[in-house]
Write a structure and sequence with these properties.
Structural class: mainly alpha
Strand order of the largest sheet: 1-2
Distance between the termini: 71 Å
Order of helices and strands: HHHEHEHHHHHHHHHHHHHHHH
Radius of gyration: 29 Å
Oligomer: single chain
Largest sheet: 2 strands, antiparallel
Low-confidence stretches: 67-73, 192-198, 333-338
Number of helices: 20
Mean pLDDT: 75
Length: 338
């Protein structure tokens, strides 16, 4: 209750909640044993929303219930306190159901809320974290949801997380609280800030993390159903092929930062136009090295090429977020022509 609590404003459920909280767990157990789940649920909701109840009000409630109490102390009604009481006076299954109802949508735990996030979007965030941190996060989520997120993680990274998850031991509360705070501040708050806004940017980010075949299939279907929406999403995407629209200075910066072997693998699936843009910005010696890497690669798996391209794109987007380079999807023009 937000306003000051007075005895005159209390209803029957609230008086019952105050009475039980003042009596302690032993008596609460006796009362709850004689109540059905619906009655317990109603009283529990009242208990969890009471807030701080002044001692004089407690005294008046006790007098009304014809109970004697010497120097009653104030009681605190909160979700945490109510959950603790329920855990001690009810069987596990009954307390879980009631606690879930008390929480409601607004009071769900961070982990409950996290499982409502699109799997690909969460994966794009987690792949920038340490594998050990991701393993701890996965240990708090349901297996079915984790499996869906895993499908969107790079293979090597996902394997590293799995190995750590298998070996994961008990996690200290301090570490867990630290991870929860990071998720709230860096991730969940970002989601909340987007409420009421267009999610085309988020969808574009999801498309950026799809494999090429799935991206083409979904984008083609989207163009058939809603061309305007598809164009809006496409304009906000930054794909490997979009590197061709960057200026020469930016491309040279990227070429200095990306490992030559990774670049060679990513170029296996690139258009001739994009390859030429890279070659134009390489010194002769480096151009020869890149040619040599490409020859050595031979036939490669498409998913390996996709992973390499995604890695390069992530690096470019990271450089842009740090202000080292600029990438503007709206600047996309016709491809460069020799």
């Amino acid at each position: 209750m937000n306003e000051a609590i007075s005895f005159q404003n209390l209803n029957g459920l609230q008086k019952t909640a105050i009475f039980l909280m003042s009596m302690g767990e032993k008596y609460i157990r006796r009362f709850f044993e004689r109540m059905d789940d619906d009655e317990i649920r109603q009283v529990s909701i009242a208990m969890s929303s009471m807030g701080s109840v002044p001692a004089p009000v407690v005294q008046q409630v006790l007098e009304e219930f014809s109970k004697n109490m010497t120097e009653p102390s104030a009681v605190e009604g909160s979700f945490e306190a109510t959950a603790k009481v329920l855990s001690k006076v009810l069987p596990h299954e009954r307390q879980e159901n009631i606690i879930r109802d008390i929480q409601g949508p607004a009071g769900r735990t961070l982990w409950d809320k996290l499982e409502n996030v699109d799997e690909a979007f969460l994966a794009s965030y987690l792949e920038k974290e340490y594998p050990q941190t991701v393993a701890v996060i996965f240990s708090k989520l349901h297996a079915e949801y984790v499996a869906k997120v895993m499908a969107h993680l790079p293979e090597d990274f996902a394997m590293d997380v799995i190995m750590r998850l298998v070996r994961l031991e008990s996690v200290s509360m301090d570490i867990l609280k630290g991870i929860e705070e990071t998720l709230k501040n860096d991730f969940m708050n970002t989601l909340v800030s987007k409420e009421g806004q267009s999610f085309s940017g988020q969808v574009a980010d999801i498309f950026n993390h799809l494999d090429r075949q799935t991206e083409n299939r979904l984008m083609t279907g989207l163009f058939e159903r809603n061309r305007e929406m598809a164009e809006e999403i496409r304009s906000q995407m930054f794909t490997f092929e979009d590197i061709q629209f960057l200026d020469d200075t930016t491309i040279r910066f990227v070429l200095k930062k990306v490992d030559r072997k990774k670049m060679a693998l990513s170029l296996k699936g690139a258009s001739e136009t994009l390859k030429q843009r890279f070659y134009q910005n390489l010194p002769d010696k480096s151009r020869g090295e890149l040619d040599e890497y490409l020859k050595r690669l031979g036939a490669v798996r498409l998913k390996d090429v996709d992973a390499a391209q995604a890695s390069v794109v992530d690096m470019i987007k990271s450089f842009a977020s740090q202000g080292q380079i600029q990438i503007s999807p709206s600047d996309k023009t016709d491809a460069w022509i020799e």
